Each structure stands twice: as structure tokens, then as C-alpha cells.
UniProtKB/TrEMBL annotation:
<dbReference type="InterPro" id="IPR036388">
    <property type="entry name" value="WH-like_DNA-bd_sf"/>
</dbReference>
<dbReference type="Pfam" id="PF04542">
    <property type="entry name" value="Sigma70_r2"/>
</dbReference>
<keyword id="KW-0804">Transcription</keyword>
<protein>
    <submittedName>
        <fullName>RNA polymerase sigma factor SigV</fullName>
    </submittedName>
</protein>
<dbReference type="InterPro" id="IPR014284">
    <property type="entry name" value="RNA_pol_sigma-70_dom"/>
</dbReference>
<dbReference type="InterPro" id="IPR013324">
    <property type="entry name" value="RNA_pol_sigma_r3/r4-like"/>
</dbReference>
<dbReference type="GO" id="GO:0003677">
    <property type="term" value="F:DNA binding"/>
</dbReference>
<dbReference type="InterPro" id="IPR007627">
    <property type="entry name" value="RNA_pol_sigma70_r2"/>
</dbReference>
<keyword id="KW-0805">Transcription regulation</keyword>
<dbReference type="InterPro" id="IPR013249">
    <property type="entry name" value="RNA_pol_sigma70_r4_t2"/>
</dbReference>
<dbReference type="GO" id="GO:0016987">
    <property type="term" value="F:sigma factor activity"/>
</dbReference>
<dbReference type="InterPro" id="IPR039425">
    <property type="entry name" value="RNA_pol_sigma-70-like"/>
</dbReference>
<dbReference type="InterPro" id="IPR013325">
    <property type="entry name" value="RNA_pol_sigma_r2"/>
</dbReference>
<keyword id="KW-0238">DNA-binding</keyword>
<keyword id="KW-0731">Sigma factor</keyword>
<feature type="domain" description="RNA polymerase sigma factor 70 region 4 type 2">
    <location>
        <begin position="97"/>
        <end position="149"/>
    </location>
</feature>
<dbReference type="GO" id="GO:0006352">
    <property type="term" value="P:DNA-templated transcription initiation"/>
</dbReference>
Length: 160
């Protein structure tokens, strides 16, 4: 990959990769750090990465780097579960806010597959390549994530 191709990769894919990581982490600064690390890795391996495959490399590296970051810095929390427990005193009127909070409860693979498909618009094949799994596993993860979200939303009597 040439210097010009590397700069084109930054222009073409940095925003999408950042949105993907931000959607999963929910922290702007940590997301920026991860994307910076991804593009540093890309620069270091520019000789071996083909420009046509750079998008897949960037999202795969972002996914793996994000998982490493989560393992190191984010212990599992039950706060989100407690916050979303239905009560008669609180009502949610913003469905998007509820979905954002419910996404944090999904297992990492399901959340990643769903985010890449529904928020970023990637095909099943692209998601499979990014996550290094096969297409049927991608479909299963997305199905289970959607089913979980649907059941949680149905069970929340506070959603108006």
C-alpha cells in the first residue's frame, strides 16, 4: 500500500470505523484512541496490506482492538440491568435511548454483528470477514440479538 492509498483509507474508512467502535463502547475518547491505534497498525503493516482489502483489515483490527480494550478496562456491570428494570414510577418515551441501553446488555459478538449490520449497513459476508466467523454465525448472532431486544422491549411496561 502506498502513502497515497493509506491516506485514502483514512479518508474513506476512519469515520465508519469510529462510529462502529463508539456505538459499542459509548466513550468518545476511548473510541478515538482505538481508531488511532488501528491506523497506526495499518501504517506499520502498509507493505503487506492490499488497498482493496484495507476496509476489511481496518474493521477487523478495530473489532479486535476494541475487544482487547473491553477485556482490560471494562468489568461487567449490572448497573445497566438494574437501570432498565421496569418500575411503575419511571416511563421511557425515547425508544432510541432504551435501545442504546439494551445494546449494552448483549454479548459482545451479538452487539458487534447487529451494529455492523443495522447501524453501519454491512453485508453478512463483510461482517463475517470482519469478525472472522462464517456467515451463518453472523446471521445467528444478529437473530439472537434482535430476538433479545424484541423480548426486552415487549416485557417493559414502562415504554410508552
Amino acid at each position: 500500500m502506498t502513502k497515497r492509498e493509506y491516506n485514502a483509507c483514512v479518508d474513506l474508512h476512519a469515520d465508519g470505523a469510529y462510529r462502529f467502535v463508539l456505538k459499542n463502547l459509548g466513550n468518545e475518547e476511548e473510541s478515538k484512541d482505538i481508531i488511532q491505534e488501528v491506523f497506526t497498525k495499518l501504517w506499520e503493516k502498509a507493505e503487506t496490506v492490499n488497498f482493496e482489502k484495507a476496509k476489511s483489515y481496518i474493521f477487523s483490527a478495530a473489532y479486535r482492538t476494541m475487544l482487547d480494550h473491553i477485556k482490560k478496562h471494562k468489568p461487567l456491570s449490572t448497573e445497566a440491568v438494574q437501570y432498565l428494570e421496569p418500575s411503575h414510577e419511571s416511563h421511557y418515551s425515547d425508544v432510541q435511548e432504551v435501545l442504546e441501553q439494551l445494546l449494552t446488555l448483549l454479548p459482545e459478538k451479538q452487539k458487534t454483528a447487529l451494529t455492523l449490520r443495522d447501524y453501519e449497513g454491512y453485508s453478512y459476508a463483510e461482517i463475517a470477514e470482519i469478525m472472522a466467523i462464517n456467515e451463518s454465525q453472523v446471521k445467528v448472532n444478529i437473530f439472537r440479538a434482535r430476538k433479545f431486544l424484541k423480548n426486552k422491549i415487549k416485557s417493559m411496561d414502562v415504554l410508552i
